[in-house]
Amino acid sequence: MNNYKTLIIDAISELSSQKLRTFLTLLGMIFGVGAVIAMLNIGEGAEKEALALIDSMGVNNIIVESKQYTADELKELREESLGLSLADSEAAVKTLPFVTDFSASKHIKVHDIYSDWGKSPSEAMGITPSYFEHGNLTLSQGRFFDSNDDIKLAQVVVLGFDTAKNLFPNNDPIGQFVKINHLWLEVIGVLSAPAQSKDEFQGVAVGGDRNRLFIPLLTSMKKLKVDTLDSQLDTIKLSIDKQTDPIIAASAISHLIKQRHGDVDDFTLLVPAALLEQQKQTQQIFNIVMACVAGISLLVGGIGIMNIMLANVLERTREIGLLRAVGATQKDIKQQFIAESFTISILGGILGVLFGQLLAALIGFYSGWAVSWSIPAIVLALGICMLVGVGFGVFPAIKASKLNPIDALHSD
Fold it and tell me: Are 340 and 6 in contact (CB under 8 A)?
């Protein structure tokens, strides 16, 4: 152990005597490792954000959405199909054995949303109580409404995190009242702040619940104005058991609803599990590209290390001859030069990691992208740096150890 410690100290001392050359060699390692660390941190952040967005849709859910039409198109369409309805949801649960539960939602056409303390531009939605569970939503205070509230047409509301701040700045919203159009509603709950900041994933609208108000679905149908041509529901989420292939389940659900709608294709299906698989494939391609970039960057850094070590061998030929003359073995010379290349590579790796973290933080700050520390990437980068240092230092070390002591002493 002491021998290795001495080798490292001697290596640092030798490299310090050639500060400019060592610094320029370090730059190759620092920029190479730093760029890779920064990109992997951004990739890790993007992956976690994507998983959070998919989780908000529910990986075991099949989402059925009503298509949008003009008023004239709806008049013609309603002769064949009434659009998405609670009856479609109940039929899926009763008919398809792999469908275990459902939730439903309908956007409410809003003119005004306000309280005694403020106004809000938020969306309002009528939902079934199961919507909260299917969307993996949690409360910061209060409670969710339940099926009893829905059946009794209770005038209650759950606020999204940002909506609560807009309507009740510096006030506790629980027990207060909010007016949606002409209807007053009592606030019984406030959602927690969302983990993700985006409302879209791969072109699909998700999340956004922080800027919404939620009231019982039946309350919204009975006590708020509804366009008679609109479908009863905008969205249905059908939970499927984990043993069923989501793609096969989606096909069966599509067939059932299309039959109920007179063979009219007035809905679309989203399969979060398929989006998750697509995200994993994209991330895998990204990781492969990053691995190639990392390999090239470290290869360039390794070549830089080899260059400086070969230059050191030429400059220290007489020193090597003197060491051999006083009893140093070929192994001693080899170890000393490998220690120097190892030291410069590990120092470059550490500085590169710090530079990469700083670069990722700056990119995330100015671009608004999600950034997450990737501990495996840091460990891997440092490990590869060690291998590069040793690998590219072997040839110069062997060359130095094989110098003839007499010829080395007589060199200029």
Answer: no
Cα(412)–Cα(66) distance, integer angstroms:
86
* Residues 104 and 131: beta-carbon distance below 8 Å: yes
- Within 10 angstroms of residue 385's Cβ, the number of other Cβ atoms is 27
Please give the mean pLDDT across all residues of the chain.
82
Q: Of how many residues is the chain composed?
A: 412
Task: For residue 406, give both structure tokens.
Answer: 């007499």
Q: What is the pLDDT of residues 147-202, one digit of tens each?
A: 999 999 999 999 999 899 989 988 899 999 999 988 999 999 999 987 555 555 44
CB-CB contact of 48 with 392 (8 Å): no
- First-to-last alpha carbon distance for the chain, in angstroms, is 36
Distance CA(113)–CA(179), nearest Å, equals 6
Question: What are the residue ranges spanned by the domains of the chain?
Answer: 2-53+278-409, 60-271
Which pair of tokens denotes residue 240? 């499927």
For residue 2, what pLDDT is reported? Answer: 45
> What element of type H or E holds 60?
none
**Residue 15: exposure state from Cβ atoms within 10 A (0-12, 13-18, ≥19):** buried
Q: What are the structure tokens assigned to 227, written together?
A: 């366009």
The ranges of the chain with pLDDT < 50 are: 1-2, 201-205
**Widest distance between CA atoms in the chain:** 104
The residue type found at 345 is: S
Q: Within 10 Å of residue 98's Cβ, how many Cβ atoms?
A: 19
Residue 410: the pLDDT is 62
Residue 200: predicted pLDDT: 53
- Using only C-alpha atoms, the chain has a radius of gyration, in whole angstroms, of 33
Residue 1: the pLDDT is: 46
What are the CA-CA distances from residue 171 to residues 166, 269, 277, 342 (Å)?
10, 41, 43, 61
Residue among 298, 302, 397, 380 nearest 340 (CA): 397
